[in-house]
Design goal:
It is a single chain. The chain has about 210 residues and is mainly alpha-helical. It folds into two domains: about 10-125, Hypothetical protein af1432, CATH 1.10.3210; about 130-209, no CATH class. It contains ten helices and no strands. The radius of gyration is 18 Å and the shape is globular.
């Protein structure tokens, strides 16, 4: 017998959010819950459907169940194939939600194709300097357990430099977001190598003890 979900939120909380519990530590349920909160907060500034924002944010990383490198594309496929979303959305809305999930990744070679996509991409940035460093370390520990402490430090430096430093590939999309000020704080931290290394040591010890 098919399960009955009275609302989109009931469905997401029962069937979608639990999927994140199996992902790496940087992408578990607290991450998606924060993306949802931040996306809805940003959406309040624009004429967008909050249910579409909620769905796109909830599904945006579900593709991690299959592959990290192409997870954004897999997330889009999962949205298009989801059997319950047609209860609340038209085919055109589902396609827009899927494209927003596909466009959230910071390393894409194209801009988000819609306002909804820009909102999800911005909400996914979550630029809290200590959180960014912690998530970088957590991802490294989950995916490169063979590395020693020194190698994790070098990997952290490389990732932060490529993505967040001046000239990095991360872009911001929503002017109402607090991310611009937070990115400036993070860049100051990246430029202060002793302070960054001290934070790395603190977080790495906490994550490995």
């Amino acid at each position: 017998m098919e399960k009955d979900y009275p609302t989109l939120q009931a469905y997401v909380e029962a069937e979608i959010l639990p999927r994140y519990d199996a992902f790496d530590k940087a992408h578990r349920r607290p991450h998606v819950e924060r993306v949802i909160r931040d996306a809805l907060a940003l959406a309040a500034f624009y004429p967008v459907d909050p249910d579409m924002v909620y769905a796109a944010a909830a599904f945006h990383d579900t593709g991690l169940c299959e592959d990290r490198r192409t997870h954004h594309l897999i997330s889009g496929r999962i949205i298009r194939e989801d059997p319950f979303l047609p209860r609340w959305f038209s085919p055109e809305q589902i396609e827009e939600i899927a494209r927003a999930a596909e466009d959230h990744r910071a390393s894409l070679d194209h801009d988000p194709r819609s306002l909804l996509g820009r909102i999800i991409a911005e909400a996914d940035r979550q630029i809290e300097p200590e959180t960014i460093v912690a998530r970088t370390i957590q991802y490294g520990l989950d995916h490169y357990p063979e590395l020693d402490r020194a190698a994790h430090w070098e990997r952290t430096l490389q990732h932060l430099g490529e993505k967040y430093a001046e000239g990095g590939y991360l872009k911001l999309w929503i002017p109402e977001s607090p991310n611009a000020a937070k990115l400036a704080q993070l860049r100051s931290l990246i430029a202060d190598r002793p302070r960054l290394h001290a934070l790395f040591e603190e977080i790495f010890t906490r994550e490995t003890s």
